[in-house]
């Protein structure tokens, strides 16, 4: 079983910066892709950024050039550094990881963090 714990959300002014962190814990497991999703009030959840086990990132067009995703495999942690924040970035941000038991070959399962609120407002 894998648990994801997020931290770093809060209130920031437009143009400001904020960093999010998400760490996985539990029994022995392997992780492939890590990513961040967000859900604004009244809207569907959308992919913000994803990073592969090899460290290759991909971003939604809306955040490209402003957000940076990174990971620390030794600590089973994924980060999202957000800069030049806009009011439309306001949402609950969820981290996501695909994981399976260590040295097994079962299908990857999705695990989700509890969500952290990011509010961009004056």
Report the average pLDDT across residues.
Answer: 97
Total DSSP E strands: 11
Shape: elongated
Major sheet attributes = 7 strands, mixed
Residues in helix, %? under 10%
Distance between the termini: 41 Å
What's the gyration radius in Å? 14 Å
Specify the structural class: mainly beta
- Unreliable stretches, pLDDT < 50, 5 or more residues? none
Strand content: over 45%
How many helical stretches?
0
- Helix/strand order: EEEEEEEEEEE
Give an overview in words.
This protein is mostly beta strands. Helices cover 0% and strands 57% of the residues. It has strands at 2-7, 10-12, 18-26, 29-39, 46-51, 57-59, 67-72, 77-82, 91-101, 109-112, 116-120. Strands 2, 4, 5, 6, 9, 10 and 11 form a 7-stranded mixed β-sheet that branches. A 4-stranded antiparallel β-sheet has the order 1-3-8-7, with no helix packed on it. The chain is elongated, with a radius of gyration of 14 Å. The mean pLDDT is 97.
């Amino acid at each position: 079983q894998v648990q994801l714990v997020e931290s770093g959300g809060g209130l920031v002014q437009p143009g400001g910066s904020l960093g999010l962190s998400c760490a996985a814990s539990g029994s022995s497991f392997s992780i492939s892709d890590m990513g961040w999703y967000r859900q604004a009030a009244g809207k569907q959840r959308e992919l913000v950024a994803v990073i592969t086990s090899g460290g290759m990132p991909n971003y939604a067009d809306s955040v490209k050039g402003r957000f940076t995703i990174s990971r620390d495999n030794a600590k089973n942690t994924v980060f999202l550094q957000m800069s030049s924040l806009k009011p439309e970035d306001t949402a609950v941000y969820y981290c996501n990881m695909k994981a399976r038991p260590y040295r097994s070959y079962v299908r990857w399962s999705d695990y989700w963090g509890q969500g952290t609120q990011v509010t961009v407002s004056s």
